[in-house]
Design goal:
CATH topology of the largest domain: Rossmann fold
CATH superfamily of the largest domain: P-loop containing nucleotide triphosphate hydrolases
Radius of gyration: 19 Å
CATH architecture of the largest domain: 3-Layer(aba) Sandwich
Number of helices: 10
Shape: elongated
Order of helices and strands: EEEHHHEHHHEHEHEEHH
Structural class: alpha/beta
Length: about 250
């Protein structure tokens, strides 16, 4: 099932094409320079942006089961597809962390029992339990990023999208998030990530998509990308520069 996404403004440009079915239960890294279209792509896959060249319902067909009469409930979409964006403020400052999570749970249509169980588990996982009844406005950026993960995971999404998820996180937070991505994929869920922390990306990604000037110029495993770059070895930084610099020169 291919999804076609036009990221650039040039009508003659080639759209990014992703076979979403091939990405099920994998960890895909979308890598590119600033302004290459990574965040735009992720927001369209998360159904946060409309684009006439993407059929969003193809994404829904894979991740959101239809109800009787072929109807898709908004709460079901929120549960099944969710996103964390680094650098964006999470939560309402005049609410405590726990109150924020209870509010998000209502958006997802979760029962009281499920909400309580998931909130407690997520607060413990992201090391926020002892601060759960503190007003969010007093939280550091890193703690708010942890809260963003808790809120996004409350609905137990099948497609989890993370745009620069490591922003503001400390060393322990980096490890927690890397472990999370592995566990989600092991559970059969799909994780799509962007990050400029290439060492982290190389460690957690099963497949890597390189986007440049709104175009997908490479997609595959590290071994695939090395072959495309004409390298026998090299880390992701080396490969990324080899793949993108010819396109930069031609732009």
């Amino acid at each position: 099932m291919n999804i076609h996404v036009m990221l650039g403004s040039d009508p003659a440009g080639a759209p990014v094409q992703l076979d979403i079915e091939e990405l099920l239960a994998t960890r895909l890294l979308v890598q590119g320079n600033s302004g290459s279209g990574k965040s735009h792509l992720l927001k369209m896959l998360a159904l946060l942006l409309e684009n006439r060249t993407i059929d969003g319902y193809r994404t829904l067909d894979l991740f959101v089961p239809k109800c009787e009469g072929n109807e898709i409930l908004a709460a079901e979409i929120r549960r099944r597809i969710n996103m964390v964006a680094g650098g964006e403020t999470s939560g309402y400052g005049l609410l405590t962390v726990r109150e924020n999570l209870w509010m998000f749970a209502q958006f997802y249509g979760l029962t009281h029992k499920v909400t309580n169980e998931r909130i407690e588990a997520l607060l413990t996982r992201f090391r926020l339990a002892e601060h759960a009844d503190t007003l969010t406005e007093s939280y550091s950026h890193g703690m708010r990023q942890r809260l963003a993960f808790c809120a996004a995971l409350l609905g137990d999404p099948q497609l989890f999208i993370a745009d620069e998820p490591m922003v503001g996180l400390d060393v322990q937070g980096h490890r927690d998030v890397k472990n999370l991505f592995r566990e989600l994929a092991d559970q059969g869920k799909t994780v799509i990530i962007t990050t400029h922390t290439l060492a982290v990306a190389e460690e957690v990604a099963d497949r890597i998509a390189v986007v440049n000037h709104g175009r997908l110029i490479a997609l595959g495993t590290m071994s695939d990308l090395r072959q495309q770059a004409g390298r026998a070895d090299g880390n992701l930084e080396d490969i990324f520069l080899d793949l993108t610099e010819p396109h930069e020169a031609a732009a």
